[in-house]
Design a protein that fits this description.
A seven-stranded antiparallel sheet has the order 2-1-7-6-5-4-3, sandwiched between helices. The protein is α+β, with helices and mostly antiparallel strands. Helix content is 36%, strand content 33%. It has one domain: Dynein light chain 2a, cytoplasmic (Beta-Lactamase, 2-Layer Sandwich). It starts with a helix and ends with a helix. Binds to actin and affects the structure of the cytoskeleton. At high concentrations, profilin prevents the polymerization of actin, whereas it enhances it at low concentrations.
Length: 126
């Protein structure tokens, strides 16, 4: 399966409206659906945030120039919320999955599908 198929499958769940997969270092885009496209500085901050959450706690979580309220940041997952939409970032061994959910979607539903994909990728050594 191509990387693009993974982001497309996240979109197909209807719990995520935009998705992307980046290298774990945050230096390359592997796949993107519905123009999520984080700026290079934003994905670099997220990549660093998995190692040092205080970076995001002090500067905030930004996507496409918009600031998200940081809900959770640890070595595996980073969650953010902006009004009624939100963002889920999950780090696997080799990748960072990013899923955006729109207004009307329960955050738990979106989180579950992104985290499940991460679990699968980890199980196959990605």
């Amino acid at each position: 399966m191509s990387w693009q198929a993974y982001t497309d499958n996240l979109i197909a769940t209807s719990f995520v409206d935009k998705a992307a997969i980046y290298s774990a270092a945050g230096d390359s885009v592997w796949a993107e659906s519905n123009a999520l496209g984080l700026y290079s500085t934003e994905i670099q901050e997220i990549a660093k945030g998995f190692q040092s959450p205080e970076i995001l706690q002090s500067k905030g979580l930004h996507v496409k120039g918009e600031k998200y309220f940081l809900i959770k940041a640890d070595e595996r997952s980073i969650y953010g919320r902006q009004e009624k939409s939100g963002l889920i970032c999950v780090k696997t061994k080799q990748a960072i999955l990013v899923g955006h959910y729109p207004e009307g979607v329960q955050p738990g539903d979106a989180t579950k599908v992104v985290e499940q994909l991460a679990d699968y990728l980890i199980s196959v050594n990605y």
